[in-house]
Amino acid sequence: MTPADYDPFCITAPVDQRLPSDVSGKKFCGSDVKPEKFGLVNNLITQASHYGKLSEVFDGVDVTSPTFSAGWAPPGDFEHRARRHDNCLLIDSRRLL
């Protein structure tokens, strides 16, 4: 697809007091794909494992002590949380061909 495969268009919102002032009566423009190009795609579908490993690991523990019926509770809760992210992905463009 190239920019030539799109047609520009504009619409004008109706003038209406119920619409926000930055919308009412304003012109909005964009582009739409030409009908003869609609649906023509060249998507590559492959396994993510071909490009490295993406992971998110949560290591944590929450410990809460009980409250006794007499209204006495030992001090506190204990919480430990650690989150590790591995966002290192290598994309080899030769594999895309």
Secondary-structure map:
Blueprint: E1 6-12, E2 27-33, E3 55-64, E4 77-86, H1 93-96
Antiparallel strand pairs: 1-2, 3-4
Structure description:
This protein is mainly beta and 97 residues long. It has two domains: 3-37, no CATH class; 48-96, no CATH class. The chain contains one helix and four strands. The chain has one helix at residues 93-96, and strands at 6-12, 27-33, 55-64, 77-86. Strands 1-2 form a two-stranded antiparallel sheet. A two-stranded antiparallel sheet has the order 3-4.
Explain briefly what this protein structure is.
The protein is mostly beta strands.
Q: What's the helical proportion of residues?
A: under 10%
* Average pLDDT taken over every residue: 76
Indicate the overall shape.
flat
- List the quaternary state of the chains: single chain
How many H/I helical runs?
A: 1
Number of extended strands:
4
Give the class from helix and strand content and strand pairing.
mainly beta
Number of domain units: 2
Order of helices and strands: EEEEH
Report the sheet-strand fraction.
Answer: 35-45%
Give the terminus-to-terminus CA distance. 18 Å
Unreliable stretches (pLDDT < 50, length at least 5) are none
Instruction: Please tell me how large the radius of gyration is.
Output: 28 Å
Observed structural traits:
mainly beta, single chain, flat
